[in-house]
Amino acid sequence: MAQLLKERTEEHPIRGRVMRFPRAMYYIVSVLSLGIFHIICTFFPRVRLVFECKTSLHEKANVVEYRNHILNVHTERVKSQETSEIADDYIRNGIFRYIFVLHERRIFNWSTRVYEIPQVDRDIDGLTRKEREIFFGKNMLVSQIDPPGIVLFNTTFTVVNVYTLFGIFLWIKIGYIVYALIIFVLMMYTVITETSREIKANAAKKQASRMKNVSYLLTNGIAEPISSADIILGDVLLLIPFLEVPCDCQVLQGTLAVDEGFVTGESVPVLKKEGAEVLGGTTVLQAHAEGGEALCAEIEEFIQSGSFAIVRAVKTSFSSTKGKALKNLAEQKITLPPLYYDTIKIIGITASVAAPFLLGLLIYMDRKGLVFAVGKYYALDLLYAIVSPSIPTTIWIGMSLCSKRLERIGVICKNLSVTNISGNITRVCFDKTGTLTEEGLDVKLICINGEEFFTIDDMPPRAALGVRACHSAESVGERTLGDPLDIKLLHFSRSRVAYVASQTGRKRAIYTEDEHQGTILQVFGFDPNTRRMSTVIDTPNGFFFFTKGSPETIETLCDPSTVPDSYFQVIDKYSMEGYRIIALAGKSIENPLLDRESLETGLELLSIIVFENKLKKETTSTISALSGSGIDSVMCTGDSLLTAVSVAMQCGIVEKHVPVIYPIRTGDQDVTELTWKCINDDVVLDKDILKVRKGKDYTSYIDFVVAVEGNLFDLLIQSPDYRRLVKKRCKVFSRMNPSQKSAVVNFYKESGLVCFVGDGANDCNAIQSADVGISLCSADGTTGEFCVSSYVVYRKEITSLLSIIKEGKSTSVTTINKIEQILTITITQFIALCVLQTQLLFMSDRQNIYSDILISIPLSILMSRFKSSRQMSTKRPKQRIFIKSILLKMALHCSVHFIHLYACIHILRSIENKYIGPPYKLGHLSEVSQIGTGTFFLFNFQILYSGFCYTSGAPFRERKSKNLSFVFFYLAHITILSTFLISVTNAAKDHPQAIWLRKLLDLCPLEPNSVFVILTVFLSDAFFISFISKVIKALLT
């Protein structure tokens, strides 16, 4: 008992448990209870926990309890010679036990009796491979994915479906056999459709998490095939071209060219040299290493040709880059829109109000002679009339149709509920590169002493040599691999890399056509701290040293006499035009073996290299459309501030005539001590009132924009005044890392719905944080699949954002309209049936089929099949239904319907429509009567007219007249109802076809003038509904 008590004292304790019986028993009991037991366990998970298992000591437990959920215990055997004393606390009788808690592996410590993440105080190289497996686990991506049978079970026994199932049994009991069968078929269609969608989604997750590739484990110089899932932290691996990197690794020997499109969104080769980190999930394009002698027949040709690299696994499983992305996917929570909860509230309130009426009606019918047991079924049927299970289905249908329309243009909706809020976005945050601009950079020009050169041929020889030789690009076959900027410079200089043998090994030589320009002797790789890279080259004219990097850094290395006075003005000019700038410097040297520090002094400034990152052709028009519809656009990028502001001006995020100010911090200045500069004007920020001025002129500069870098964003938002300034004025966030991008999204979510549009795994945090996240998918689809986004766009065009917003506006309006229409009609139907039951009358099975199955459900679907408007509206649709205008309109509409129904029944009785047919079963209500016939016609006319009134067109959707299926539906039902109405007139009473039509819907012939009464009452009802709607709209406007 003391041990059990200890296990319970932890925060969120993990308790040992033993299953009472197989898990199939839970599903059997749930099915036998028609899902009631499952619903109870869903809302109260501890009930299932107690039902399935009992408390146990850990050494006897086959499962554990964590936060009222059951987790499987995994056990594995280990041989004594495979481990040392360091693992003794985790092994008993040759077995160690572990579990996965929220994708985190925990091992059972027999000494402390808790599942823990072990803290190993020994260097990883000092552990045996089995000890590393025990402590850190294998490279498995274990995800809890339900099998198809469980998916079908969960989809079938939802709250709505269980409620519908009991309704089906109720309708069978009353005698609505055909109606019950049709509802069951419709419910199962929805279940099968949703199950199929969920199974496909699970299959995609399973495919993404599957470690299907073979890797090669290097042990004592021998490479052995190993499943990628069996890799352990610290393993030394051999990578060859075309393999997916199984986990995050560090390069020990050789160089790799990998495609990091999964992470960055840009499918360009990235060179990885010794010491560099290679991310799991990326693909090896090329590899090269010297001295390959590993024995492995499968990859012998790669080893002999040197097409391999040796790496060490440094992050595995869910700690790796791919694992973290999959963890985010698995933990993605589907949130329901506020509209859904508003609907539940209204239904609950309506049901609470209706309950006393049902009780009173039941007592009234009992006094009238109806058997109480039968009366309660009719009373429950009235409850189903007012608390309709069709409302959640209606919301789902609308969102599903919206998703299918987007799918046709290459947009996949991963969270259907988001379609109801996508139209209410107030701000869109954009990544820059690959989202607003094209992927990669192109050389625009090279500037030397103020003169611009657009080709390499006209440049001075030394500057041209520096462009050709200062890079780390490699050549493998016919492909040039390396940093994208280096490759662009090689192409600009019309040069190529070839390899030559030397006494110190293979060296890279530079050729232009067939002319040898020189051989690269040393490469000092790019250092993010010094922000430059350098090379030493041997040419026919001697040795040269070149370095290139950020203009500020290169300027400090140069002889001041070689740097023009206008150097920084030129840099700022190009930066303001949106170009990316690097500087190139160099000198001739005598000794090529000097260290880097000695070489990087007294350099001559050779050129300024200008790269352009072109805007996508659709960017400006998209930003303009967003601005025109009242949606703010913000740029959130890792690029420099000046470049980001320039691109923002080009695409319209920032208007070109508006002053742009930004803060600069020196040392540990407080937020109030920051220096503020203006990029495109000479205004200054008045720190007392946080407004800009030129001299004493404030009024001319009411409108201004703030740009801020990531490190200062954190500082500014700590001050309430500057926080308000940033929220209102900031349009450009630069030098932002992934976590800062996410912070910007959360910052703006305080005041509205935020959308983030990005194209790489480095945007995933922000995309996941946003109310609406959009991932522009990479060419191979990996970026979008691994991002926890609301939408995945399988073409890198941001115009899809406009389609998503327009469809969101349309879907939101459609959903609200349908809920209004259904609630109004269900309340009206409830009132009509209550009035009929006071006469001991009811509507027949066939009449309910016509009203619900042939009118209400198709009308609900057709209301969802309206295309969105082609134009972006400046208006935003209502997000909630629990607001004054909607509730008032529904209440008045229901009152008008009730008054006219009651008036119609009263008038029909006054003109002797008193015929009542016998009930279909003794003791039940009569379903064939003249009053019931009149009520049937008026009620169906009310359904049709309410559907027409509640179906909105412009400005969010196409006009009703353009929806041919909607028009045809109304023409068809007006024709059908008119035909049936003629069949009950006195003139057609004895006609054979009229008799057949009346029997088809259990109708009775009416007395003279009855049809006129029905039509007159309906026209009056329609007039007052229309009049009230216009009055409410006018008053609220």
Automatic annotation (TrEMBL):
<dbReference type="InterPro" id="IPR023298">
    <property type="entry name" value="ATPase_P-typ_TM_dom_sf"/>
</dbReference>
<dbReference type="InterPro" id="IPR036412">
    <property type="entry name" value="HAD-like_sf"/>
</dbReference>
<keyword id="KW-0547">Nucleotide-binding</keyword>
<feature type="transmembrane region" description="Helical">
    <location>
        <begin position="377"/>
        <end position="399"/>
    </location>
</feature>
<keyword id="KW-0812">Transmembrane</keyword>
<feature type="transmembrane region" description="Helical">
    <location>
        <begin position="928"/>
        <end position="951"/>
    </location>
</feature>
<dbReference type="GO" id="GO:0140358">
    <property type="term" value="F:P-type transmembrane transporter activity"/>
</dbReference>
<keyword id="KW-0460">Magnesium</keyword>
<dbReference type="InterPro" id="IPR023214">
    <property type="entry name" value="HAD_sf"/>
</dbReference>
<keyword id="KW-1133">Transmembrane helix</keyword>
<feature type="transmembrane region" description="Helical">
    <location>
        <begin position="176"/>
        <end position="192"/>
    </location>
</feature>
<dbReference type="InterPro" id="IPR001757">
    <property type="entry name" value="P_typ_ATPase"/>
</dbReference>
<dbReference type="InterPro" id="IPR006544">
    <property type="entry name" value="P-type_TPase_V"/>
</dbReference>
<feature type="transmembrane region" description="Helical">
    <location>
        <begin position="849"/>
        <end position="866"/>
    </location>
</feature>
<dbReference type="InterPro" id="IPR023299">
    <property type="entry name" value="ATPase_P-typ_cyto_dom_N"/>
</dbReference>
<dbReference type="InterPro" id="IPR008250">
    <property type="entry name" value="ATPase_P-typ_transduc_dom_A_sf"/>
</dbReference>
<feature type="transmembrane region" description="Helical">
    <location>
        <begin position="346"/>
        <end position="365"/>
    </location>
</feature>
<feature type="transmembrane region" description="Helical">
    <location>
        <begin position="24"/>
        <end position="44"/>
    </location>
</feature>
<feature type="transmembrane region" description="Helical">
    <location>
        <begin position="1008"/>
        <end position="1028"/>
    </location>
</feature>
<keyword id="KW-0479">Metal-binding</keyword>
<dbReference type="GO" id="GO:0016887">
    <property type="term" value="F:ATP hydrolysis activity"/>
</dbReference>
<feature type="transmembrane region" description="Helical">
    <location>
        <begin position="150"/>
        <end position="170"/>
    </location>
</feature>
<dbReference type="GO" id="GO:0005524">
    <property type="term" value="F:ATP binding"/>
</dbReference>
<dbReference type="InterPro" id="IPR059000">
    <property type="entry name" value="ATPase_P-type_domA"/>
</dbReference>
<dbReference type="InterPro" id="IPR044492">
    <property type="entry name" value="P_typ_ATPase_HD_dom"/>
</dbReference>
<dbReference type="GO" id="GO:0016020">
    <property type="term" value="C:membrane"/>
</dbReference>
<dbReference type="GO" id="GO:0019829">
    <property type="term" value="F:ATPase-coupled monoatomic cation transmembrane transporter activity"/>
</dbReference>
<comment type="similarity">
    <text>Belongs to the cation transport ATPase (P-type) (TC 3.A.3) family. Type V subfamily.</text>
</comment>
<keyword id="KW-0472">Membrane</keyword>
<dbReference type="Pfam" id="PF00122">
    <property type="entry name" value="E1-E2_ATPase"/>
</dbReference>
<protein>
    <submittedName>
        <fullName>Cation-transporting ATPase 13A3/4/5</fullName>
    </submittedName>
</protein>
<dbReference type="InterPro" id="IPR018303">
    <property type="entry name" value="ATPase_P-typ_P_site"/>
</dbReference>
<keyword id="KW-1278">Translocase</keyword>
<dbReference type="GO" id="GO:0046872">
    <property type="term" value="F:metal ion binding"/>
</dbReference>
<feature type="transmembrane region" description="Helical">
    <location>
        <begin position="963"/>
        <end position="988"/>
    </location>
</feature>
<dbReference type="GO" id="GO:0006874">
    <property type="term" value="P:intracellular calcium ion homeostasis"/>
</dbReference>
<feature type="transmembrane region" description="Helical">
    <location>
        <begin position="886"/>
        <end position="908"/>
    </location>
</feature>
<feature type="domain" description="P-type ATPase A">
    <location>
        <begin position="217"/>
        <end position="292"/>
    </location>
</feature>
<keyword id="KW-0067">ATP-binding</keyword>
<dbReference type="Pfam" id="PF13246">
    <property type="entry name" value="Cation_ATPase"/>
</dbReference>
